[in-house]
Amino acid sequence: MQYIIYTDESVQRGRFYSNFYGGALVRSTSLEVVKQALEKEKNSLGLQEIKWTKVSAAYLDRYIAMIKVFFDLIEAGQIKVRIMFTQNALQPVGLTREQLEESYFLLYYQFLKHGFGLVYTRDSCHPIYLRLYMDQLPDTKVKAEKFKNFVYNLQFQPEFVQAGIRIRKEDIAEVNSKDHVILQCTDVVLGAMQFRLNDLHKVIPEGQKRRAAKTRAKEKLYNYISSRIREIYPGFNIGESTGLKGDISNRWNHPYRHWKFVPGNWEYDESKTKPK
């Protein structure tokens, strides 16, 4: 058994929320079915690369149709999606200079380690191998390799050993999202969350009296994504960590989850909250 995880990152510094990471997990037994379903829909819609930044009024209906298939697969249990972010009002304190400089990779590591609740998997197949496909990392090759080594060493932590999870170095790869439709769909969902959490749906261009057509189209796509999430979890709050419903293994079981990462030590900065 293999778990294939596609990961992406978005805005590192937003007005209210920052450090957005997103991922989609597919079991090897479902991979071809999932890829074929998404590629078939993408081709029928005449889409090339799917990206949140490319959403426009002209393409809105096609993007909604594409994301419909993606969420159909999530609801069917063939894809698990996780979104992680930080809230600017919760300011970390006591961090070292090195921690501040390495914050991008440190948070990415936490996302991979905990985001999918891998240690709570109950799949009977052992060992379970992870294949990690990360959208190209925006940093130096030296830092990227250091990060990959930390990810590789996850398998030696006791809880990962107990879960039978293994990682081969050749299975930790940076990829071009143009070649991976699952990663492209993840980018759209991640982009929609940072768009809404940072109130970008309210932006009016300077010198204009109303929002741009592209902004209105993105809001409609976000609304569709939100409606699909709420079909799974009524009353879902996109700005908070998804509840466990009394069972910690739901970190793995749930098809879709959000994680608002909170530092171990923090202080509240009201100036970074949304206006009431």
Q: Report the mean per-residue pLDDT as an integer.
A: 94
Residues in helices, as a percent range: 25-40%
Number of strands: 8
Topology as a string of helices (H) and strands (E) = EEHHEEHHEHHEHHHEE
Number of helices: 9
Give the name of the CATH superfamily.
Answer: Ribonuclease H-like superfamily/Ribonuclease H
User: Termini separation (Å)?
Assistant: 49 Å
Q: Which residue ranges are poorly predicted, with pLDDT under 50 across at least 5 consecutive positions?
A: none
Strands of the largest sheet, in order across it?
Answer: 6-5-1-2-3-7
**Rounded radius of gyration (Å):** 19 Å
What is the CATH topology classification name? Nucleotidyltransferase, domain 5
The quaternary state of the protein chains shown equals: single chain
Q: Give the second-level CATH assignment, the architecture.
A: 2-Layer Sandwich
Structure class: alpha/beta
- The tally of domains stands at 1
Beta content:
15-25%
Biggest sheet statistics: 6 strands, mixed
**Molecular shape:** globular
CATH class call = Alpha Beta
Mind explaining what this structure looks like?
Strand 1 and strand 2 form a beta hairpin. The chain is globular and about 60 Å long. The protein has helices spanning 31-44, 60-75, 97-101, 103-114, 141-152, 158-163, 181-197, 213-232, 250-253, and strands spanning 2-9, 17-27, 80-87, 90-92, 128-135, 165-175, 256-260, 266-268. The longest helix has 20 residues, at 213-232. It has one domain: Ribonuclease H-like superfamily/Ribonuclease H (Nucleotidyltransferase, domain 5). The chain contains nine helices and eight strands. It has a six-stranded mixed beta sheet, with helices on both faces. By secondary structure, the protein is α/β, with parallel strands linked by helices. The mean pLDDT is 94.
